[in-house]
Amino acid sequence: MxxxxxxxxxxxxxxxxxxxxxxxxxxxHVLDETPSTNSAALALAQDGAPDGTVVVAESQTxxxxxxxxxxxxxxxxxxxxxxxxxxAPSAEPVxxxxxxxxLLSAVAVARxxxxxxxxxxxxxxxNDILIEQRKVGGLLCESSGTGTAHGLVIVGIGLNVNMWRxxxxxxxxxxxxxxxxxxxxPFDRAVLLATVxxxxxxxxxxxxxxxxSEIKHEYALRCATIRRRVRVDMANGESLEGRAHAxxxxxxxxxxxxxxxxxxxxxSVVTIRAxxxxxxxxxxxx
Length: 286
Ligand code: BTN
Description:
The chain is an alpha+beta fold. The protein is built from 6 helices and 12 strands. The longest helix has 24 residues, at 94-117. The chain binds biotin.
């Protein structure tokens, strides 16, 4: 018996049976092991794979997280998948496409979790998926050739599904969770994948039809970062602290920063388009 058969595998048949999409997942690659489903999807896309192609793997040997981190990807437990999106809205600048795809994808994943499990995940800007302050999933969107006729975005989704809390590596145990740990039962990953794809297609089609403000509204309703005190570590090594108060029309995070000047502090609004946002735990609702 191969090690992959010791759990319920994701099969193309099981995903297809549960799928209600027109495009996403209609070209589907199910792998036992790959370095990274994002890298596999990018290679397929560069070879001409159609819009909506999905790669899903039982394990990743070099799963990639945001900001150069690794994504813990043990065999047969979780969902590691990547989706090729080739359609860009013609009426919008490429930057709008690139900033909204991660956010609308995060909303889609959160909604899929809710539909499947009854749990109600929140989002940490830009696209961490949280349950009760612990991370249950994350997204890594990578683009190639944007601004050309062959531009594409790979939406990579990692979701902790059937791991029990004591099986997480020690350094993740307090920070991460899984659907099984939260709901007290395991989940069918093929059905979950099909639900993620349906929810994503719905929002991607809406975005293509110009419904950005509806997506922004749905994102803001789920976003646990708004009204929180946050610290933002930026790529240039600088960091700032302030209160997140809104999502901008371009998907950015708007933060109010206080500058103490004499006795009357001055405030300014800073727009964050990239960076590592930390929710400062104390002082939640000041
Ligand atoms: C994050 O840091 O929160 C993003 C994690 C994204 C992980 C997923 S797993 C499937 C896909 N393939 C990768 O190598 N990374 C993404």
